[in-house]
């Protein structure tokens, strides 16, 4: 969960998000080194009055400042492509959940079960209990088993939405008439908050996403209880 004055990302709750955090640190270190080098060159050129004719006209230095940026780009591109392919992998999911965006709430359907689905609305501010987050709490949470591959099918009924949970490293557009899919593995039990990340109308900021990751036996008890109530 993000907190005020936080400068970095939320703590990773899935293997893909851990990879994204590592890639961010890797890219930022390269940017920092480039910035220091450029700053040093600028300061050196301004502060010194000495010139060197071999630097002013040199084939070798032109080769260096052409090859070095290319190598730097490769060092950034290869890990990036690796993570992109990892994010697209959906291998033998243990559970499939269909998330449907509406104006302005989410519906969830557990397609592996018969008649297991519900709508998820934001809890109004006046109904919040102690410890709940304003604009982020939902009356029905999407419950998933921890340490299990979960596939999420994302679509919309009316306008464009986006199903995003930063701690899980998941963000997928919900497009009417189109079924997109993404997957994640929750590496620990907990509550993970997200919001619609595509401007979808007047109440765009009032359709939160709450994913509750629980141990497998608790998930089975929850699904059985929900089926009995329905």
Automatic annotation (TrEMBL):
It is a multi-pass membrane protein. The chain crosses the membrane at residues 27-51, 63-85. Its main location: mitochondrion. Residues 1-91 form the Cytochrome oxidase subunit II transmembrane region profile domain. Keywords: Copper, Electron transport, Magnesium, Membrane, Metal-binding, Mitochondrion, Mitochondrion inner membrane, Respiratory chain, Translocase, Transmembrane, Transmembrane helix, Transport. It is found in: Mitochondrion inner membrane. It comes from the Eukaryota. SUPFAM superfamilies: Cupredoxins (SSF49503), Cytochrome c oxidase subunit II-like, transmembrane region (SSF81464). This is Cytochrome c oxidase subunit 2. It comes from Nemipterus virgatus. The gene is COXII.
């Amino acid at each position: 969960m993000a907190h005020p004055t936080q400068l970095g990302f939320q703590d990773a709750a899935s293997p893909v998000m851990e990879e994204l955090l590592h890639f961010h640190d890797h890219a930022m270190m390269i940017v920092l080194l480039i910035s220091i080098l450029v700053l040093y060159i600028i300061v050196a050129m301004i502060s010194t009055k000495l010139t060197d004719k071999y630097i002013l006209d040199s084939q070798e230095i032109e080769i260096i400042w052409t090859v070095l940026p290319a190598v730097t780009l490769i060092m950034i591109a290869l890990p990036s492509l690796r993570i992109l392919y990892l994010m697209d992998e959906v291998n033998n999911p243990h559970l499939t959940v269909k998330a449907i965006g509406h104006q302005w709430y989410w519906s969830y359907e557990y397609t592996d079960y018969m008649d297991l689905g519900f709508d998820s609305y934001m809890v109004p501010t006046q109904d919040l209990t102690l410890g709940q987050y304003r604009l982020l709490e939902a009356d029905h949470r999407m419950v998933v088993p921890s340490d299990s591959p979960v596939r999420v099918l994302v679509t919309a009924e009316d306008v464009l939405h986006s199903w995003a949970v930063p701690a899980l490293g998941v963000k997928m557009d919900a497009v009417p008439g189109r079924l997109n899919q993404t997957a994640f593995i929750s590496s620990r039990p907990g509550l993970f908050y997200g919001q619609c990340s595509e401007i979808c109308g007047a109440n765009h900021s009032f359709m939160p996403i709450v994913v509750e990751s629980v141990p497998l036996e608790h998930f089975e008890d929850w699904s059985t209880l929900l089926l009995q109530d329905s």
